[in-house]
Amino acid sequence: MAAGSSSRVPISMLLQDKSSRATEDDEEPKKKSREDWRKAKELEEARKAGTAPAAVDEEGRDINPHIPQYISSAPWYYNTAGPTLKHQRPQEESRELSGIDEVVSAGVDTSKSVTKFRKGACENCGAVTHKKKDCMERPRKVGAKFNGGKIAYDEFVQPKIVSDYDGKRDRWAGYDPANHREIVEEYQKIEVAKRELRAQKLKENPDLADEEEDEEDEDKYVDEVDMPGRTKVDSKQRITVRNLRIREDTAKYLRNLDPNSAYYDPKTRSMRDNPNPNLHPEETDFAGENFVRYSGDIQKHAQAQLFAWEAHGKGVDVHDASKNKVVEQYGGEEHLQVPPRALLLAQTENYVEYSRFGKIIKGEDKPIIRSRYEEDVFVNNHTTVWGSFWRDGVWGYKCCESTIKNSYCVGENGKSEPSDQVAGPSRDKLKVALRQEERNQARAEQLLKMDERKRPYNSMFEVREPTQEEMEAFQMKRCREDDPMRQFMDK
Protein backbone atom coordinates (compact mmCIF):
# COMPACT_ATOMS: atom_id res chain seq x y z
CA MET A 1 0.00 0.00 0.00
CA ALA A 2 1.44 3.41 -0.96
CA ALA A 3 2.51 5.66 1.87
CA GLY A 4 -0.38 7.95 2.66
CA SER A 5 -2.26 6.84 -0.49
CA SER A 6 -5.52 6.11 1.35
CA SER A 7 -7.46 9.32 1.81
CA ARG A 8 -9.41 9.77 5.00
CA VAL A 9 -12.67 11.70 4.92
CA PRO A 10 -14.22 13.41 7.97
CA ILE A 11 -17.06 11.58 9.67
CA SER A 12 -19.48 14.43 8.99
CA MET A 13 -18.82 14.19 5.24
CA LEU A 14 -19.16 10.43 5.32
CA LEU A 15 -22.51 10.68 7.05
CA GLN A 16 -23.63 13.36 4.61
CA ASP A 17 -22.58 11.33 1.59
CA LYS A 18 -24.16 8.23 3.05
CA SER A 19 -27.47 10.00 3.64
CA SER A 20 -27.44 11.46 0.10
CA ARG A 21 -26.69 8.10 -1.45
CA ALA A 22 -29.34 6.46 0.68
CA THR A 23 -31.94 8.83 -0.71
CA GLU A 24 -30.77 8.25 -4.30
CA ASP A 25 -30.08 4.53 -4.75
CA ASP A 26 -29.98 3.14 -1.15
CA GLU A 27 -26.60 1.49 -1.80
CA GLU A 28 -23.71 1.02 0.69
CA PRO A 29 -20.28 2.53 -0.15
CA LYS A 30 -18.04 0.17 -2.05
CA LYS A 31 -15.21 -1.60 -0.26
CA LYS A 32 -11.85 -2.60 -1.64
CA SER A 33 -11.78 -6.05 -3.07
CA ARG A 34 -9.08 -8.61 -2.38
CA GLU A 35 -7.58 -7.89 -5.78
CA ASP A 36 -7.29 -4.16 -4.97
CA TRP A 37 -5.53 -4.93 -1.66
CA ARG A 38 -3.14 -7.25 -3.45
CA LYS A 39 -2.25 -4.63 -6.07
CA ALA A 40 -1.69 -1.98 -3.40
CA LYS A 41 0.62 -4.35 -1.50
CA GLU A 42 2.62 -5.17 -4.65
CA LEU A 43 2.97 -1.46 -5.46
CA GLU A 44 4.26 -0.75 -1.93
CA GLU A 45 6.85 -3.56 -2.19
CA ALA A 46 7.92 -2.35 -5.61
CA ARG A 47 8.43 1.18 -4.34
CA LYS A 48 10.52 -0.09 -1.44
CA ALA A 49 12.60 -2.20 -3.87
CA GLY A 50 13.10 0.80 -6.15
CA THR A 51 11.45 -0.74 -9.24
CA ALA A 52 8.44 1.63 -9.07
CA PRO A 53 8.46 5.43 -8.71
CA ALA A 54 7.85 6.84 -5.24
CA ALA A 55 4.60 8.51 -4.28
CA VAL A 56 4.42 12.28 -4.82
CA ASP A 57 2.72 14.73 -2.43
CA GLU A 58 0.66 17.77 -3.37
CA GLU A 59 3.81 19.93 -3.59
CA GLY A 60 5.53 17.60 -6.09
CA ARG A 61 8.06 16.13 -3.63
CA ASP A 62 8.74 12.41 -3.42
CA ILE A 63 7.72 10.51 -0.31
CA ASN A 64 10.18 7.98 1.08
CA PRO A 65 8.47 4.57 0.79
CA HIS A 66 10.28 3.31 3.91
CA ILE A 67 8.44 5.78 6.16
CA PRO A 68 6.17 3.83 8.55
CA GLN A 69 2.48 3.94 7.92
CA TYR A 70 1.64 5.49 11.30
CA ILE A 71 3.79 8.51 10.28
CA SER A 72 2.73 8.84 6.64
CA SER A 73 -1.01 8.39 7.30
CA ALA A 74 -2.66 11.78 7.81
CA PRO A 75 -5.38 12.22 10.47
CA TRP A 76 -8.95 12.04 9.28
CA TYR A 77 -9.67 15.69 10.05
CA TYR A 78 -7.03 16.84 7.48
CA ASN A 79 -9.31 15.67 4.66
CA THR A 80 -6.41 14.87 2.32
CA ALA A 81 -7.03 13.72 -1.23
CA GLY A 82 -3.73 11.88 -1.72
CA PRO A 83 -0.41 10.98 -0.15
CA THR A 84 1.06 13.80 1.91
CA LEU A 85 3.44 14.56 4.77
CA LYS A 86 2.14 18.05 5.43
CA HIS A 87 0.81 17.03 8.82
CA GLN A 88 4.36 16.13 9.94
CA ARG A 89 5.89 19.51 9.00
CA PRO A 90 5.80 22.66 11.18
CA GLN A 91 2.53 24.48 10.69
CA GLU A 92 2.56 28.13 9.78
CA GLU A 93 1.34 30.51 12.48
CA SER A 94 -1.82 32.12 11.15
CA ARG A 95 -2.26 34.63 13.96
CA GLU A 96 -0.17 37.75 14.50
CA LEU A 97 1.85 37.61 17.72
CA SER A 98 2.44 40.55 20.03
CA GLY A 99 5.76 42.32 20.08
CA ILE A 100 8.32 42.18 22.84
CA ASP A 101 7.54 45.77 23.85
CA GLU A 102 3.83 45.08 24.44
CA VAL A 103 3.55 44.41 28.15
CA VAL A 104 0.88 44.69 30.82
CA SER A 105 1.35 47.89 32.82
CA ALA A 106 0.50 47.89 36.52
CA GLY A 107 -0.95 50.76 38.54
CA VAL A 108 -2.58 53.93 37.28
CA ASP A 109 -1.60 56.50 34.69
CA THR A 110 -0.46 59.54 36.67
CA SER A 111 0.61 61.47 33.59
CA LYS A 112 -2.94 62.66 32.90
CA SER A 113 -4.72 64.82 35.47
CA VAL A 114 -8.47 65.33 35.18
CA THR A 115 -10.39 68.01 37.11
CA LYS A 116 -13.86 67.58 35.61
CA PHE A 117 -16.22 64.63 35.68
CA ARG A 118 -16.51 62.88 32.32
CA LYS A 119 -19.60 61.21 30.94
CA GLY A 120 -19.57 57.44 31.41
CA ALA A 121 -16.94 57.53 34.16
CA CYS A 122 -17.17 55.90 37.60
CA GLU A 123 -19.71 57.75 39.71
CA ASN A 124 -17.68 57.12 42.87
CA CYS A 125 -14.07 58.03 42.02
CA GLY A 126 -14.39 59.56 38.55
CA ALA A 127 -12.02 57.20 36.68
CA VAL A 128 -13.21 56.49 33.14
CA THR A 129 -11.65 53.02 32.88
CA HIS A 130 -14.22 51.27 35.10
CA LYS A 131 -17.79 51.56 36.36
CA LYS A 132 -19.13 52.14 39.86
CA LYS A 133 -19.79 48.46 40.51
CA ASP A 134 -16.15 47.63 39.71
CA CYS A 135 -14.65 50.52 41.72
CA MET A 136 -12.10 49.40 44.33
CA GLU A 137 -12.03 52.74 46.16
CA ARG A 138 -13.90 53.25 49.42
CA PRO A 139 -17.46 54.47 48.74
CA ARG A 140 -17.49 58.23 49.09
CA LYS A 141 -20.16 60.13 50.94
CA VAL A 142 -20.62 62.34 47.88
CA GLY A 143 -19.43 60.76 44.65
CA ALA A 144 -17.25 62.43 42.08
CA LYS A 145 -20.24 62.65 39.75
CA PHE A 146 -21.95 65.20 42.01
CA ASN A 147 -19.12 67.29 43.42
CA GLY A 148 -16.49 66.81 40.70
CA GLY A 149 -13.67 66.80 43.23
CA LYS A 150 -10.68 64.47 43.66
CA ILE A 151 -11.06 62.73 40.32
CA ALA A 152 -9.03 59.50 40.50
CA TYR A 153 -6.39 58.63 37.93
CA ASP A 154 -7.34 56.28 35.12
CA GLU A 155 -5.90 52.80 34.99
CA PHE A 156 -3.67 51.79 32.11
CA VAL A 157 -5.55 50.43 29.12
CA GLN A 158 -4.09 46.95 28.89
CA PRO A 159 -3.24 45.67 25.41
CA LYS A 160 -4.45 42.30 24.19
CA ILE A 161 -1.28 40.24 24.17
CA VAL A 162 -1.13 37.23 21.84
CA SER A 163 1.89 35.03 22.62
CA ASP A 164 3.17 31.73 21.36
CA TYR A 165 4.38 28.81 23.45
CA ASP A 166 7.73 30.42 24.29
CA GLY A 167 6.23 33.85 24.86
CA LYS A 168 3.82 32.57 27.50
CA ARG A 169 6.72 31.04 29.42
CA ASP A 170 9.13 33.96 29.16
CA ARG A 171 10.13 34.71 32.75
CA TRP A 172 11.62 38.08 31.76
CA ALA A 173 8.55 39.36 29.91
CA GLY A 174 7.70 42.88 31.02
CA TYR A 175 10.91 43.30 33.06
CA ASP A 176 12.47 46.74 32.94
CA PRO A 177 16.29 46.51 33.04
CA ALA A 178 16.38 49.99 34.52
CA ASN A 179 15.11 48.51 37.80
CA HIS A 180 18.42 46.71 38.26
CA ARG A 181 20.19 50.05 38.41
CA GLU A 182 18.44 50.82 41.70
CA ILE A 183 19.83 47.61 43.24
CA VAL A 184 23.34 48.41 42.03
CA GLU A 185 23.15 51.93 43.42
CA GLU A 186 21.89 50.61 46.77
CA TYR A 187 24.83 48.24 47.14
CA GLN A 188 27.23 50.96 46.09
CA LYS A 189 25.90 53.21 48.83
CA ILE A 190 26.37 50.36 51.34
CA GLU A 191 29.98 49.87 50.25
CA VAL A 192 30.67 53.61 50.55
CA ALA A 193 29.15 53.64 54.04
CA LYS A 194 31.30 50.65 55.07
CA ARG A 195 34.47 52.34 53.84
CA GLU A 196 33.60 55.55 55.68
CA LEU A 197 32.89 53.59 58.87
CA ARG A 198 36.17 51.68 58.56
CA ALA A 199 38.10 54.91 57.98
CA GLN A 200 36.48 56.48 61.02
CA LYS A 201 37.40 53.49 63.20
CA LEU A 202 41.00 53.56 61.94
CA LYS A 203 41.16 57.27 62.67
CA GLU A 204 40.00 56.72 66.23
CA ASN A 205 42.19 53.62 66.82
CA PRO A 206 45.19 53.25 64.47
CA ASP A 207 46.11 49.85 65.96
CA LEU A 208 43.21 48.22 64.13
CA ALA A 209 45.05 48.55 60.82
CA ASP A 210 47.69 45.99 61.87
CA GLU A 211 45.01 43.53 63.01
CA GLU A 212 43.17 43.80 59.68
CA GLU A 213 46.40 43.14 57.78
CA ASP A 214 47.05 40.00 59.86
CA GLU A 215 43.53 38.71 59.19
CA GLU A 216 43.92 39.30 55.45
CA ASP A 217 47.19 37.34 55.45
CA GLU A 218 45.56 34.42 57.27
CA ASP A 219 42.52 34.34 54.98
CA LYS A 220 44.61 34.60 51.82
CA TYR A 221 45.59 30.92 51.81
CA VAL A 222 42.45 29.41 53.35
CA ASP A 223 40.90 28.46 50.01
CA GLU A 224 44.00 26.47 49.05
CA VAL A 225 44.04 24.31 52.19
CA ASP A 226 42.89 20.70 51.65
CA MET A 227 40.46 20.07 54.50
CA PRO A 228 39.03 16.54 54.74
CA GLY A 229 35.30 16.39 54.99
CA ARG A 230 34.84 19.99 53.82
CA THR A 231 33.48 20.92 50.41
CA LYS A 232 32.97 24.66 50.79
CA VAL A 233 35.30 27.05 52.55
CA ASP A 234 34.60 30.75 52.07
CA SER A 235 37.32 32.99 53.45
CA LYS A 236 35.07 36.06 53.47
CA GLN A 237 32.01 34.56 55.12
CA ARG A 238 33.89 31.90 57.13
CA ILE A 239 31.34 29.19 56.25
CA THR A 240 32.26 25.50 56.19
CA VAL A 241 29.86 22.78 55.11
CA ARG A 242 30.30 19.20 56.32
CA ASN A 243 29.53 16.95 53.39
CA LEU A 244 31.74 13.85 53.65
CA ARG A 245 32.81 11.61 56.50
CA ILE A 246 36.36 12.05 57.73
CA ARG A 247 38.27 8.97 56.60
CA GLU A 248 39.94 8.51 59.96
CA ASP A 249 36.57 7.92 61.64
CA THR A 250 35.01 4.48 61.80
CA ALA A 251 31.78 4.18 59.85
CA LYS A 252 28.70 3.52 61.96
CA TYR A 253 27.72 0.43 59.99
CA LEU A 254 31.10 -1.13 60.88
CA ARG A 255 30.40 -1.00 64.63
CA ASN A 256 28.50 -4.27 64.44
CA LEU A 257 28.32 -6.34 61.25
CA ASP A 258 25.44 -8.44 62.54
CA PRO A 259 22.47 -7.88 60.14
CA ASN A 260 20.08 -8.11 63.12
CA SER A 261 21.78 -5.26 64.97
CA ALA A 262 20.79 -1.58 64.88
CA TYR A 263 19.46 -0.26 61.57
CA TYR A 264 21.73 2.02 59.56
CA ASP A 265 20.16 4.58 57.22
CA PRO A 266 22.58 5.11 54.30
CA LYS A 267 20.77 8.22 53.05
CA THR A 268 21.16 10.25 56.24
CA ARG A 269 24.18 8.24 57.55
CA SER A 270 22.46 7.77 60.89
CA MET A 271 22.19 4.85 63.31
CA ARG A 272 19.79 5.75 66.08
CA ASP A 273 19.85 2.55 68.13
CA ASN A 274 22.82 1.10 69.99
CA PRO A 275 24.69 -1.35 67.69
CA ASN A 276 26.02 -3.17 70.80
CA PRO A 277 23.06 -3.45 73.18
CA ASN A 278 24.84 -6.03 75.34
CA LEU A 279 27.60 -3.57 76.27
CA HIS A 280 27.24 -0.64 78.64
CA PRO A 281 27.21 2.76 76.88
CA GLU A 282 30.34 3.77 78.80
CA GLU A 283 32.23 0.72 77.48
CA THR A 284 31.67 1.50 73.80
CA ASP A 285 32.69 4.47 71.69
CA PHE A 286 29.29 4.75 69.97
CA ALA A 287 26.03 3.96 71.76
CA GLY A 288 23.61 5.19 69.08
CA GLU A 289 22.34 8.66 68.29
CA ASN A 290 19.30 8.26 70.53
CA PHE A 291 21.55 7.84 73.54
CA VAL A 292 22.23 11.57 73.64
CA ARG A 293 18.54 12.34 73.36
CA TYR A 294 17.73 10.40 76.53
CA SER A 295 20.62 11.60 78.64
CA GLY A 296 20.77 14.36 81.24
CA ASP A 297 17.52 15.82 82.61
CA ILE A 298 15.37 14.61 79.73
CA GLN A 299 14.06 11.64 81.68
CA LYS A 300 13.21 13.84 84.67
CA HIS A 301 11.32 16.22 82.41
CA ALA A 302 9.37 13.34 80.86
CA GLN A 303 8.44 12.01 84.30
CA ALA A 304 7.29 15.46 85.44
CA GLN A 305 5.19 15.89 82.33
CA LEU A 306 3.62 12.44 82.78
CA PHE A 307 2.78 13.32 86.39
CA ALA A 308 1.13 16.56 85.28
CA TRP A 309 -0.97 14.73 82.70
CA GLU A 310 -2.15 12.13 85.21
CA ALA A 311 -2.97 14.80 87.81
CA HIS A 312 -4.91 16.86 85.27
CA GLY A 313 -6.88 13.75 84.29
CA LYS A 314 -7.87 13.25 87.94
CA GLY A 315 -9.10 16.85 88.24
CA VAL A 316 -6.08 18.35 90.04
CA ASP A 317 -4.54 21.48 88.59
CA VAL A 318 -0.84 21.32 89.47
CA HIS A 319 -0.14 24.67 87.81
CA ASP A 320 -2.25 26.83 90.18
CA ALA A 321 0.53 27.39 92.69
CA SER A 322 3.12 28.34 90.09
CA LYS A 323 0.62 30.50 88.20
CA ASN A 324 -0.37 32.41 91.33
CA LYS A 325 3.28 32.91 92.23
CA VAL A 326 4.05 34.36 88.79
CA VAL A 327 1.01 36.65 88.92
CA GLU A 328 1.97 37.95 92.39
CA GLN A 329 5.53 38.65 91.28
CA TYR A 330 4.96 40.13 87.83
CA GLY A 331 1.28 41.10 87.80
CA GLY A 332 -1.00 40.83 84.76
CA GLU A 333 -4.03 39.23 86.35
CA GLU A 334 -6.32 41.33 84.14
CA HIS A 335 -5.06 39.45 81.07
CA LEU A 336 -6.30 36.15 82.51
CA GLN A 337 -9.88 37.44 82.63
CA VAL A 338 -10.65 37.12 78.95
CA PRO A 339 -14.01 36.51 77.27
CA PRO A 340 -14.87 33.05 75.93
CA ARG A 341 -12.91 31.68 73.01
CA ALA A 342 -15.97 31.76 70.76
CA LEU A 343 -16.21 35.54 71.19
CA LEU A 344 -12.49 36.13 70.67
CA LEU A 345 -12.24 34.19 67.41
CA ALA A 346 -15.83 34.83 66.28
CA GLN A 347 -16.35 31.12 65.74
CA THR A 348 -17.60 28.12 67.62
CA GLU A 349 -17.73 24.35 67.28
CA ASN A 350 -21.45 24.07 68.03
CA TYR A 351 -23.19 21.90 65.43
CA VAL A 352 -26.21 23.45 63.73
CA GLU A 353 -28.26 21.66 61.06
CA TYR A 354 -30.65 23.56 58.77
CA SER A 355 -33.45 22.40 56.51
CA ARG A 356 -33.75 23.31 52.83
CA PHE A 357 -36.02 26.22 53.83
CA GLY A 358 -33.52 27.72 56.29
CA LYS A 359 -35.14 26.46 59.49
CA ILE A 360 -33.06 24.95 62.27
CA ILE A 361 -33.47 21.19 62.63
CA LYS A 362 -30.75 20.46 65.17
CA GLY A 363 -28.63 22.77 67.31
CA GLU A 364 -28.96 26.36 68.47
CA ASP A 365 -29.57 29.38 66.31
CA LYS A 366 -26.85 31.95 65.74
CA PRO A 367 -27.03 35.03 67.95
CA ILE A 368 -28.57 38.15 66.48
CA ILE A 369 -25.96 40.34 64.87
CA ARG A 370 -25.68 43.65 66.65
CA SER A 371 -25.82 46.94 64.82
CA ARG A 372 -22.64 48.64 63.72
CA TYR A 373 -23.77 51.79 65.57
CA GLU A 374 -23.14 52.27 69.28
CA GLU A 375 -25.96 50.95 71.46
CA ASP A 376 -26.96 51.79 75.04
CA VAL A 377 -24.53 54.72 75.24
CA PHE A 378 -25.85 57.26 77.78
CA VAL A 379 -24.26 60.71 77.76
CA ASN A 380 -24.68 63.83 79.88
CA ASN A 381 -26.49 62.10 82.77
CA HIS A 382 -29.24 60.71 80.50
CA THR A 383 -30.75 57.32 81.30
CA THR A 384 -32.24 56.83 77.83
CA VAL A 385 -30.78 57.16 74.35
CA TRP A 386 -31.47 59.86 71.80
CA GLY A 387 -34.58 59.03 69.82
CA SER A 388 -36.52 57.38 72.62
CA PHE A 389 -38.95 60.34 72.76
CA TRP A 390 -41.13 61.91 70.03
CA ARG A 391 -43.35 64.94 70.13
CA ASP A 392 -44.62 67.31 67.44
CA GLY A 393 -42.28 65.87 64.80
CA VAL A 394 -39.13 66.24 66.92
CA TRP A 395 -36.98 63.50 68.50
CA GLY A 396 -35.67 63.70 72.05
CA TYR A 397 -34.74 61.91 75.28
CA LYS A 398 -37.49 60.07 77.13
CA CYS A 399 -35.92 60.52 80.56
CA CYS A 400 -36.29 64.33 80.56
CA GLU A 401 -38.31 64.89 77.36
CA SER A 402 -35.59 67.19 76.05
CA THR A 403 -35.59 67.71 72.29
CA ILE A 404 -32.05 69.18 72.20
CA LYS A 405 -29.40 66.60 71.28
CA ASN A 406 -26.41 66.24 73.65
CA SER A 407 -28.16 68.43 76.24
CA TYR A 408 -27.69 67.82 79.97
CA CYS A 409 -30.40 65.70 81.59
CA VAL A 410 -32.37 67.34 84.44
CA GLY A 411 -34.58 64.32 85.11
CA GLU A 412 -38.27 64.73 85.94
CA ASN A 413 -37.89 68.50 86.31
CA GLY A 414 -37.49 68.85 82.56
CA LYS A 415 -40.78 67.17 81.78
CA SER A 416 -43.71 69.51 81.06
CA GLU A 417 -47.02 69.14 82.81
CA PRO A 418 -50.05 67.96 80.83
CA SER A 419 -51.68 71.38 81.31
CA ASP A 420 -48.66 73.11 79.79
CA GLN A 421 -48.83 71.07 76.60
CA VAL A 422 -50.36 72.71 73.59
CA ALA A 423 -53.63 71.23 72.51
CA GLY A 424 -53.30 69.06 69.45
CA PRO A 425 -55.07 69.66 66.15
CA SER A 426 -58.66 68.65 65.68
CA ARG A 427 -59.39 65.39 63.86
CA ASP A 428 -61.74 66.82 61.21
CA LYS A 429 -59.41 69.68 60.30
CA LEU A 430 -56.47 67.25 60.24
CA LYS A 431 -58.23 65.02 57.68
CA VAL A 432 -58.82 68.02 55.44
CA ALA A 433 -55.20 69.11 55.85
CA LEU A 434 -53.96 65.61 54.98
CA ARG A 435 -55.98 65.52 51.77
CA GLN A 436 -54.73 68.98 50.84
CA GLU A 437 -51.13 67.90 51.57
CA GLU A 438 -51.53 64.86 49.32
CA ARG A 439 -52.80 67.11 46.51
CA ASN A 440 -49.89 69.49 47.05
CA GLN A 441 -47.36 66.65 46.87
CA ALA A 442 -48.94 65.26 43.70
CA ARG A 443 -48.93 68.75 42.20
CA ALA A 444 -45.25 69.20 43.14
CA GLU A 445 -44.28 65.89 41.54
CA GLN A 446 -46.17 66.86 38.39
CA LEU A 447 -44.37 70.21 38.22
CA LEU A 448 -40.98 68.57 38.73
CA LYS A 449 -41.56 66.28 35.77
CA MET A 450 -42.41 69.24 33.51
CA ASP A 451 -39.88 71.38 31.69
CA GLU A 452 -38.93 74.30 33.92
CA ARG A 453 -39.57 76.72 31.06
CA LYS A 454 -43.20 75.56 30.81
CA ARG A 455 -44.05 75.59 34.51
CA PRO A 456 -46.92 77.96 35.46
CA TYR A 457 -46.27 80.86 37.79
CA ASN A 458 -48.89 82.14 40.24
CA SER A 459 -48.16 85.70 41.32
CA MET A 460 -51.31 85.85 43.48
CA PHE A 461 -50.18 83.09 45.83
CA GLU A 462 -51.28 83.73 49.38
CA VAL A 463 -48.41 83.96 51.84
CA ARG A 464 -49.53 83.22 55.38
CA GLU A 465 -48.43 81.23 58.41
CA PRO A 466 -49.49 77.58 58.19
CA THR A 467 -52.02 76.32 60.69
CA GLN A 468 -51.34 73.66 63.26
CA GLU A 469 -53.27 71.08 61.23
CA GLU A 470 -51.26 71.88 58.12
CA MET A 471 -47.97 71.52 60.02
CA GLU A 472 -49.10 68.17 61.47
CA ALA A 473 -50.15 66.96 58.00
CA PHE A 474 -46.80 68.08 56.55
CA GLN A 475 -44.88 66.22 59.26
CA MET A 476 -46.96 63.08 58.73
CA LYS A 477 -46.52 63.11 54.95
CA ARG A 478 -42.90 64.31 54.88
CA CYS A 479 -40.46 61.81 53.36
CA ARG A 480 -37.62 61.15 55.79
CA GLU A 481 -34.59 59.64 54.09
CA ASP A 482 -32.87 58.78 57.39
CA ASP A 483 -35.91 57.05 58.89
CA PRO A 484 -35.07 53.34 59.41
CA MET A 485 -38.76 52.41 59.18
CA ARG A 486 -39.28 54.19 55.86
CA GLN A 487 -38.95 51.03 53.80
CA PHE A 488 -41.77 49.41 55.81
CA MET A 489 -44.02 52.47 55.61
CA ASP A 490 -43.77 52.58 51.80
CA LYS A 491 -45.11 49.03 51.43
Automatic annotation (TrEMBL):
Q: Return the GO cellular component terms, semicolon-separated.
A: spliceosomal complex
Annotated region (Disordered), positions in chain: 1-67, 81-100, 458-491
- Residue ranges that the Swiss-Prot or TrEMBL entry lists as coiled coil: 427-454
**In this record, what's one Pfam family?**
Slu7
Where found, per UniProt? Nucleus
**What are the protein's GO molecular function terms?**
pre-mRNA 3'-splice site binding
Where the record annotates domain Pre-mRNA-splicing factor SLU7, the positions are: 164-320
Q: Which UniProt keywords apply?
A: Coiled coil, mRNA processing, mRNA splicing, Nucleus, Spliceosome
**Binding partners and assembly:** Associated with the spliceosome.
Protein name, entry field: Pre-mRNA-splicing factor SLU7
Source species, please? Culex pipiens pipiens (Northern house mosquito)
Please spell out the taxonomic lineage of the organism that makes this protein: Eukaryota, Metazoa, Ecdysozoa, Arthropoda, Hexapoda
